[in-house]
Amino acid sequence: MAVKKLWTIDHTCGHITTGADLSNRPADRRAGYARWLVGRDCIDCWRTARDEDADSKAEWLAKKRATEQTEAEEWSEQYRMPPLDGTDRSVAWGTRCRHQLVSAAYTALVLEGTTSEAEWEAIENAVRPLTHAGWWIDQREADPTDLPELLEAVHRERPAEREPPLLARHRTAPPRSDTDAL
Question: pTM for the full model?
Answer without folding.
Answer: 0.60
